Amino acid sequence: MLVVKKFGGSSVANKERIFNVAGRCAEEYQKGNDVVVVLSAMGDTTDELLDKAEDINPNASKRELDMLLTTGEQISVSLMAMALQAMNIPAISLNAFQVQMHSTSRNGNARFKRIDTDRIQHELGNRKVVIVTGFQGVNKYDDYTTLGRGGSDTTAVALAAVLHADQCEIYTDVEGVYTADPRVVKNARKIEEITYDEMLELATSGAKVLHNRSVEMAKKYGVELVVRSSLNTEEGTVVKEVVKVEKMLITGVAADKNTARISVIGVEDKPGIAFKIFNTLSRNNINVDIILQSVGREGTKDISFTVSQDDLKEALAVLEERKQALTIKDITHDEKVAKISIVGAGMLSNPGVAATMFESLCNSNININMISTSEIRITVLIDEKDADNALVAVHDGFGLED
Amino acid sequence: MLVVKKFGGSSVANKERIFNVAGRCAEEYQKGNDVVVVLSAMGDTTDELLDKAEDINPNASKRELDMLLTTGEQISVSLMAMALQAMNIPAISLNAFQVQMHSTSRNGNARFKRIDTDRIQHELGNRKVVIVTGFQGVNKYDDYTTLGRGGSDTTAVALAAVLHADQCEIYTDVEGVYTADPRVVKNARKIEEITYDEMLELATSGAKVLHNRSVEMAKKYGVELVVRSSLNTEEGTVVKEVVKVEKMLITGVAADKNTARISVIGVEDKPGIAFKIFNTLSRNNINVDIILQSVGREGTKDISFTVSQDDLKEALAVLEERKQALTIKDITHDEKVAKISIVGAGMLSNPGVAATMFESLCNSNININMISTSEIRITVLIDEKDADNALVAVHDGFGLED
Fold first, then answer.
1. Model's pTM, two decimal places?
2. What confidence tens digit (pLDDT) does each residue in A192-232 have?
3. CA A18 – CA A390 distance, rounded (Å)
4. Does A4 lie at the interface with B, CB-CB under 8 angstroms?
């Protein structure tokens, strides 16, 4: 059996934790299995490297930032190989060059194009634990790239796909995927099984346990994911195509506070203007989420939409620059908002889910500003200060604790 | 004009020094020259990484140690590229994979086999300052290697050779090569020009300013070296094939305290035994320096020789293990010794140099234990406590301050 195990930065933050992870890998290896381990940089290493870069040049090229950042994972994989060797387990560390993890050329946000398996297969054939740097690739110019947020998860899923691994385990500091953030909702319940689509909706709705890119890739290549804790041996959550029928209308609730609302006021009410506005944003790589359009005064309209807080500054600048061309009279924004989403394949065949959600929020005196839905998700925009209460109210409203 | 500049770890130890180096490179670039920069890891980075490895596994494989250590230079080259970019100088950093610096496979002590110039030429053609990781190579298995001591100097010389550079500048924290260590001999004089052979003898005799491997390579490929300070713009010392005749008998004096004497006592006086002893040591990669053989009691002989202090432990172990086969009765050693060497092409045609040296030492009451000579070098072994006095005495004896 071939198992890919991914451990995040906090799981390898110090000597003790490195040996904890090495122990988990050794156990798997001693069962006779082939083991590929994907690691992030140790603890806060990536942030420390970013600080160094910021200190030297706040506008450093992304190519050089990636050259700097990729050292982080190379340090953790080599130390992990040494830890395994100290336990008499043959091990070898490999970086993106050595594996040949080909990516697109976009520094800071690259995507995998092709991953060679020869070197890894060769080392597995020699009965070595193979430890691979997460988060990084090499582009066609032979330059390092990084994959952006959730990059190491993506590396693990991609390796599981090309190696036809029997299992891909994503180790985190929680025991799995929960019906809601257990730090906020005390009676949140660990989910045993969840479909790719539900996980995808939860991930894009603010659940931080898995990044949506890795789930997308897992779905595309049919890689069964297990999300579990690096600190204990609990079962964790399995993410796969078809799950056992659990009689739950919805699978989970998520809050996303990293969101901001922008309103463009007094836009000319003629065809194509809305398209132009969103096209302008999308060409600047700004993702727009919930959109609400309302009729304004004197034949104009107002359009509100949400963006990630990280993109707010740039979105405002881009709109301000093209204000006249886009016939915008005024631009306002609000950072003190949050999205609350419920996700579940069950809502496909059950009307009334939205009503239950709105009722729960209403009973807790929480005002809904905007609404957006997909087939298996309903998202509402509320004031940020209400976010935690809303999460509890909706979780209770659907009886998710049982 | 193509210039290769090499800066050591202390020259890039912090932000201020990084910008100092970037300034030197920018100046060269703005003259219209092509600039290739070779860097070591920042400050104590390499030692810190070694400490981390030691903490995880004191017997870590050299392959993984090299994987770990090579991150050090990658950090310094990427930060240097950012610093140059901050000064609006186009710059790109490259590691051993990206350049394709092929080395032998021996981790921790590799040698260059072949260096591709395509990528560097391409980037120079785009008018970029190219910043290359020193100290590292890639072997035929696509694994990182490191070059051992003086590795970054070797990288600089090797690049200067394959790129046919017009100049190879080795920047240090001293202004050049001196007639003796200026910290010990106050009136030591900076040498303007020195031949490869003299530099080689000085380097192997304890002068730390250049490593002998880089000088050997410079000689082999006719790369003219300039040793100068990264802190000021003084001229420095030029190392080349033929130098202007300066009427000096000897060029410099060096002391080497990193030496130890081993004596094997009571060895059978028959042919081949001495050969076997030194062959045993050489097969364990232990370099033997001064050798002295004397007649012992009852048809036996005693052989004394010096090794580097780093090799002492292993040398003693190796000899102890084969004590019987090598007919050794007893093994003694002394770490409290030092070598004092005088070097100079002038001594070839001038008898009496040795006499002047011995006289200077005798006048200072310094006892000579062993003597060794080459065509352009005379080395004596003395007590370590006398080393500084000996350096001053010999420097004065030859009037090197003028």
1. 0.85
2. 999 999 999 998 888 888 888 899 999 999 999 999 999 88
3. 38
4. no
- Alpha-carbon torsion angle B74, B146, B305, B384, nearest 10: 10
Nearest to B15 among A15, A56, A59 (CB): A56
* B49/A75 CB distance under 8 A: yes
Architecture of domain A338-397: 2-Layer Sandwich (3.30)
CA distance B69 to chain A (A): 8
Q: Which two tokens stand for residue A76?
A: 């953790």
Portion of chain B with pLDDT greater than 70, in percent? 99
CATH code assigned to B2-172:
3.40.1160.10
Confidence of residue A69 (pLDDT cuts 50, 70, 90): very high
CA angle (B53 as vertex; B48, B55 as ends), nearest 5: 95
Token look-up 């200067």 returns B160
> How far is the alpha carbon of B7 from chain A, nearest alpha carbon, in Å?
18
| Contacting residues of A for B85, CB less than 8 Å apart | 57, 59-61, 64
Chain A interface includes B20 (CB < 8 A): no
Q: Which residue has the tokens 């100068």?
A: B228
Tokens of A82: 């040494």
Beta carbons within 10 angstroms of residue A136's beta carbon: 28
Both tokens of A394, joined, read: 């909706």
3-state secondary structure (DSSP) of residue B7: strand
**Length of chain B, please?**
402
Whether the CB of B95 is below 8 Å from some CB of chain A: the reply is: yes
Return the closest-CA partner of residue A68 out of A82, A83, A55.
Answer: A55
Q: What does the domain layout of chain B look like in residue ranges? A: 2-172
Phi and psi dihedrals of B51, rounded to 5?
-65, -45
Contact B14/A at CB under 8 A: no
Residues of chain A contacting B18 with CB distance shorter than 8 Å: 56
A:B CB pairs within 8 Å: 110
Token look-up 């080392």 returns A123
| 8 A C-beta contact, residue A225 and residue A179 | no
Which residues numbered 108-147 in A keep a CB inside 8 Å of some CB on B?
119, 142-143
Per-residue pLDDT tens for B292-347? 888 777 778 889 999 999 899 999 999 999 999 899 999 999 999 999 999 988 88
Question: pLDDT tens digits for B18-27?
Answer: 999 999 999 9
Which ipTM value was assigned to this complex?
Answer: 0.83
Residue in B57, B82, B143 nearest the CB of A86: B57
Single-letter amino acid, residue A301: K
Asked if B45 has any chain A CB less than 8 Å from its own CB, the reply is no
Q: Could you tell me if residue B285 is left (phi over 0), alpha (psi between -120 and 50 degrees) or otherwise beta? A: left
Query: Class of A260-336 per CATH?
Result: alpha beta
Write the pLDDT tens digit of every residue in B375-397.
889 999 999 999 999 999 999 99
